[in-house]
Design goal:
Chain A: GO terms for molecular function: oxidoreductase activity. Chain A: InterPro entries: Ald_Oxase/Xan_DH_a/b, Ald_Oxase/Xan_DH_a/b_sf, AldOxase/xan_DH_MoCoBD1, AldOxase/xan_DH_MoCoBD2, AldOxase/xan_DH_Mopterin-bd_sf, N-heterocyclic_Hydroxylase, OxRdtase_Mopterin-bd_su_IorB, TAT_signal. The complex is a heterodimer of chains A (752) and B (153). Helices cover 27% and strands 26% of the residues of chain A. With 752 residues, chain A is of the alpha+beta class. Chain A folds into 3 domains: 204 residues, Aldehyde Oxidoreductase, domain 4, CATH 3.30.365.10; 176 residues, 2-Layer Sandwich (Aldehyde Oxidoreductase, domain 4); 315 residues, Aldehyde oxidase/xanthine dehydrogenase, molybdopterin binding domain (Aldehyde Oxidoreductase, domain 4), CATH 3.30.365.10. In chain A, the strands form 9 sheets. A 7-stranded mixed sheet of chain A has the order 12-14-10-23-20-21-22. Chain A has a 5-stranded mixed sheet with strand order 18-26-25-24-19, sandwiched between helices. A 4-stranded mixed sheet of chain A has the order 2-3-4-5. Chain A contains 18 helices and 32 strands. By secondary structure, chain B is of the alpha+beta class. Chain B has 2 domains: 76 residues, Ubiquitin-like (UB roll) (Roll); 68 residues, Orthogonal Bundle (DNA polymerase, domain 1), CATH 1.10.150. A 5-stranded mixed sheet of chain B has the order 2-1-5-3-4, with helices on both faces. Chain B is globular and about 45 Å long. The chains are: A alpha+beta (752), B alpha+beta (153). The structure holds FE2/S2 (inorganic) cluster (2 copies). The site of one FE2/S2 (inorganic) cluster (FES) has 12 residues of chain B, from loops.
Chain lengths: 752, 153
């Protein structure tokens, strides 16, 4: 056991005094929140008559059922199951006795209620454990007092408190009332890893039954008495803005209640990057049903005009910055030209080790390759939507957001209400991938509800969703390698940039493993808005770097895994530079694990590519196998090795890693947003290709390094490297290297 | 506006809507069955899949006026207690990530198994290619379909 001070999360453990002593009866549909199997065993068991709140994370019923709050947004990464598992393990309760509820936004009780940076588990790991351990301790204290025995003689196991010497025992439910009145301890003992009984063993999705039976779960499913539906019209192109609106015809359409323009931010409002939207003024159509507002939208007469260039003051995690949005209607052709031009000039030097110029001058051979990728739309399957009910002095918001806490101030500002009069609740979310970090749709819903004086659910059509912006940026990178006469790598040079940001991580591998290294970058301003997309920047640079290293290994005549391990050995034993931000041993660890699990050294019947990458504090290596079927490359199997520390819910973690693999192959292979005259050329799935069933790998195997380290990121890390493994395996299968995503548009096409 | 009497999940439901209204929105907004999902509105994603009689169809493409007295089955009506073999297999394999596409996937899969109780891999691909899963649960879906097929036989 580890002794740990509770003060970090202490405010969450201070009882809500309005509930203290009294208990609380709550009504909700219990069986619906059960897992299959659980429903049967629990059906015979009644819901508690009273709930006793022990701390902000959990309450215990008099019959021993426990409700655990899941504080973070659930976007498909499984936190609604895995976060409560952590609490339940420390509490020492049977998982079958646990009911999970989504917590509302509550900055007093919880911290980092954000689904971003793959940090849900890692940043709440201690707090969740403390919540469970604190409650366990308070239950023991209550039992010790009741039985008049020393507290350290009391055992807590599977929801039962017992005292061996006296033979006394009681269920948690019996002690819950007394425990809820106990002092919150100053420090508590956490379990040793060897004592975990729930963490590390797979538990099924707590919403599984609701999902497979189609129960209302998602933001788009919200229904309320008197609720209206709203949809928005935004400019048809980036670089355009609203000039005038003639809503007469639309207002006369059946079911339409109102049509008006809304403005989100006054010019002097200091917004954050998470509030920003390309289209500050948009037109709202409000009516009785979704189909009616969609039809009325087509009857709008709107004049759009070219927008001037703007410069917006923003704050980002406390840092002020100024972002410029140039005027003009941009196109993919002009973007390409701009990128090529900038990449041919000297960039901003971010890191330089040794004497790279001299090494290139003396090189026997230089390999130079350029890589590109397009803008991407997140395309969560559930389009952007949000429910808002704004009255004179209160606002209720409900729906899918990855950043409720960060959006609250902007909503307060817009509505002219104090923060405490705004309640934000989260639904389950039909995908996130970073898109719902940017909650302009919440602000829009609030603005519409305020103006329409009614509860409103704002729903984006797929076209609205895909043409709104907040895209993954477009990137460009050139790698150069200097080889000596014996084909040893003597220097590496990367120059990279993007619209509007650079994807460079100058201090990541292979920096630190090379005596001569140069990293430069550049950026291009644009009025097309972009945002974090699963593993930002890594989602391009990993594939580029890992494809390039494959070519260098080939030129050096080395096995690609062996080649990487040699570099990592150098970084481990004799690192170059001070700022290397990865652990070479853990990096090598996943490569060794994937080599073993994929039978890399013995299996010969597949075209195989390997890749490895570090991001979000985790390490991932992948081997991707391709076989040619009817002259087409078909991905047969992907073997993934991951080092993300302790894995809370192994099967769900595998599911997430499998998703990352499919996602990575899909985006590298098929997806792109291109522009003409400022307008995206793809606005629905007829033109925007997402990977489909028949294109997914036939088999995916996932292995975790078992090292007992506290958890690190998992949602993002398996996504970036697979793009490199794909490119490298395609080369083995077809003899062609692919440098430009999506690979399917490479000429001649590789598949159908 | 016009009145329609629809047979949805074995029950008769009356709605008063514009004849062009797609079944998807009739189900979601008027009958308040929101298990059937909107994803694209143009027959490209499969999120809106329901059964019309026993065939899987994209409800975003079927105007209410075209339904007549055909039986509509939605995810809510696939089984009484959520225990259709396909639903059970989905839970056993723990398929969903975000879960948003899964109602459509399950409706496509259950229609497939009804007409072909033991599909091959490529038959599964063909039947399921119209259902996008943005989270990438494809390999689990295939496994769950095979599990369900095994339990059926
Ligand atoms: S919503 Fe009908 S197929 Fe996408
Ligand atoms: S599970 Fe998220 S779209 Fe399929």
């Amino acid at each position: 056991m580890t002794l740990i001070k509770t003060h970090i999360g202490r405010r969450a453990f201070i009882r809500n005094t309005s509930l203290a002593g009294g208990g609380l009866v709550l009504g909700f549909s219990f069986l619906n929140s059960c897992k299959q199997g659980q429903a049967e065993t629990m059906a015979v068991r009644d819901m508690p008559k009273e709930w006793f709140e022990i701390n902000g994370y959990l309450k215990i019923g008099e019959n021993g059922l426990v409700t655990i709050m899941s504080p973070n947004p659930e976007i498909g990464q499984n936190v609604k199951t895995s976060m409560p598992m952590i609490v339940a393990d420390e509490l020492e309760v049977d998982w079958n006795d646990v009911i999970v509820e989504q917590a509302p936004l509550n900055t007093n009780l919880y911290s980092w209620q954000v689904a971003g940076g793959s940090r849900s588990i890692s940043s709440s790991w201690q707090n969740l454990r403390m919540a469970g351990a604190t409650a366990r301790h308070m239950l023991k204290e209550a039992a010790a007092k009741a039985w008049q025995v020393p507290v350290d003689e009391i055992e807590a196991k599977s929801g039962v408190l017992s005292h061996e010497a006296s033979g006394k025992s009681a269920g948690y439910g019996e002690m819950a009332s007394a425990a809820s009145l106990e002092e919150v301890p100053e420090e508590v003992e956490l379990k040793d890893r060897s004592e975990f009984s729930i963490i590390g063993s797979s538990r099924k999705n707590v919403d599984g039954k609701k999902i497979v039976t189609g129960q209302p779960l998602f933001g788009i499913d919200v229904q309320r008495e008197g609720m209206l539906i709203a949809t928005l019209a935004h400019p048809p192109a980036f670089g355009m803005q609203l000039k005038s609106l003639d809503a007469e015809a639309a207002k006369k359409m059946p079911g339409i209640r109102d049509v008006f323009a809304i403005k989100l931010f006054d010019d002097d409002f200091k917004r954050s990057a998470f509030h920003h939207t390309a289209f500050n003024s948009v037109v709202a159509v409000v009516g009785e049903s979704t189909w009616e507002v969609m039809q009325a939208k087509k009857a709008l007469n709107i004049e759009w005009e070219k927008a001037p260039s703007t410069s917006v003051e923003m704050s980002m995690f406390g840092n002020d910055m100024k972002v410029n949005y140039p005027a003009g209607l941009e196109s993919t052709a002009s973007h390409r030209q701009q990128m090529e031009e900038l990449n041919s000039k000297k960039g901003r030097v971010v890191r330089k080790d040794g004497k790279p110029e001299a090494a290139f001058k003396n090189a026997a051979k230089i390999i130079e390759r350029s890589y590109t990728c397009p803008f991407l739309a997140h395309n969560t399957m559930e389009p952007m939507n949000f429910f808002a009910h704004v009255t004179e002095d209160h606002a209720e918001l409900l729906g899918p957001t990855q950043t409720p806490e960060w959006m609250e101030p902007a909503i307060a500002e817009l509505l002219g209400l104090p923060l405490e009069n705004i309640d934000i609740n989260m639904t389950r979310q039909g995908g996130g991938f970073g898109r719902r970090l940017y909650g302009h749709f919440m602000i829009e819903a609030a603005a519409i509800s305020q103006k329409a004086k009614a509860p409103v659910k704002l729903v984006y059509s797929r076209e609205d969703d895909m043409s709104q912006g907040t895209y993954r940026p477009a990137y460009y990178a050139t790698y150069r390698a200097a080889l000596d006469a014996d084909n040893n790598l003597t220097a590496l040079h990367v120059k990279t940039g993007g619209i509007p940001e650079s994807p460079l991580f100058a201090n990541r591998f292979p920096a630190g493993a090379l005596d001569n290294y140069l990293a430069e970058d550049w950026t291009i301003e644009s009025n097309i808005t972009t945002g974090a997309f699963r593993a930002p920047r890594s989602n391009f640079i990993a594939g580029a770097e890992q494809s390039f290293l494959d070519e260098v290994a080939e030129a050096a005549g080395k096995d690609p895994i062996e080649f990487r391990l040699e570099l990592l050995k150098k970084a481990q034993e004799d690192p170059v530079g001070e700022n290397n931000d990865y652990d070479p041993a853990r990096y090598a660890g996943v490569l060794e694990l994937v080599r073993e699990k994929s039978n890399w050294n013995t299996s010969r019947d597949m075209h195989r590519g390997v890749s490895a990458y570090f991001c979000h504090n985790s390490y991932v290596a992948q081997v991707l196998d391709i076989a040619m079927e009817n002259d087409k490359p078909v991905v047969q199997k992907v073997t993934t090795a991951i080092d993300c520390g302790i894995v809370v819910n192994p099967d769900a973690a595998k599911n997430l890693a499998e998703g990352g693999v499919v996602d990575g192959i899909g985006h590298a292979m098929y997806s792109a947003i291109t522009f003409k005259d400022g307008a995206p050329e793809q606005t629905n799935f007829d033109k925007y290709r997402l990977i489909r069933h028949s294109e997914a790998p036939r088999e995916i195997e996932t292995y975790f390094v078992d090292n007992g380290i506290d958890p690190t990121g998992l949602g993002e890390p398996p996504f970036p490297p697979v793009m490199g493994a794909l490119a490298n395996a395609l080369y083995k299968a077809t003899g062609r290297r692919h440098y430009h995503q999506p690979f399917i548009t490479d000429k001649p096409p590789i598949v159908g | 506006m016009a009145n329609y009497t629809l047979n949805i999940n074995g029950k008769s439901r009356e709605v008063d809507v514009d004849p062009s209204t797609p079944m998807l929105w009739v189900l979601r907004d008027h009958v308040k069955l929101v298990g059937t999902k909107y994803g694209c509105g143009i027959a490209q994603c499969g999120a809106c899949t329901v059964h019309l009689d026993d065939t899987a169809v994209r409800s975003c493409q079927i105007p209410v006026s075209a339904v007549g007295d055909k039986k509509i089955t939605t995810i809510e009506g696939l089984s009484e207690n959520g225990d259709h073999p396909v639903q059970q297999a989905w839970l056993e394999i723990d398929v969903p990530q975000c879960g948003y596409c899964q109602a459509g996937q399950i409706m496509s899969a259950s229609a497939l198994l009804k007409r072909n109780p033991s599909p091959t891999d490529s038959e599964i691909d063909t039947a399921m290619d119209g259902n996008i899963c943005r989270c990438g649960t494809y390999t689990r879906i295939k496994k769950a379909i095979k599990t369900a097929a095994g339990n059926l036989s």
